[in-house]
Design goal:
about 120 residues, mainly alpha, 1 helix, about 0% strand, rod-shaped, coiled coil
Length: about 120
């Protein structure tokens, strides 16, 4: 190919290549801007996520308390019922012991007198 033709083709391609270089530079600027915006979005999302996690942690304490409340109330009612049943049983045992005490004392005295050598009839 003659030198003129090479120069001629280079002259024809030069404006297109210049435009291509401009477009490549503009694309690089657009990518850089997009990367900056994406980073800003990531940082904002990370801050928002951290805020949501903290709010959830604070709310979790209250939710756990509310969830445990009915169970605690039921356990307290069961404990009160068990205490009342225990008190009733203890009262019955005390009454039984009080009613049997005179007979048991008489038996103990009779045994003691018999062992001491003094005879006493069993009550």
């Amino acid at each position: 190919m003659p030198a003129d033709r090479t120069a001629e083709r280079a002259a024809e391609l030069e404006p297109a290549l210049a435009r291509l270089a401009d477009v490549q530079q503009e694309a690089a600027q657009i990518r850089a801007t997009a990367e900056q915006e994406a980073e800003a979005l990531r940082q904002n999302a990370a801050r928002e996520a951290a805020r949501l996690v903290e709010a959830a942690r604070e709310r979790a304490r209250e939710v756990r308390r509310q969830a445990a409340e009915p169970l605690l109330r039921e356990a307290q009612q069961q404990a009160a019922a068990l205490r009342a049943a225990g008190d009733r049983t203890a009262s019955v045992i005390r009454e039984h012991a009080v009613s049997r005490m005179p007979r048991l004392v008489d038996l103990a005295v009779a045994d003691a007198l018999r062992l001491a050598g003094g005879e006493r009839e069993e009550p």
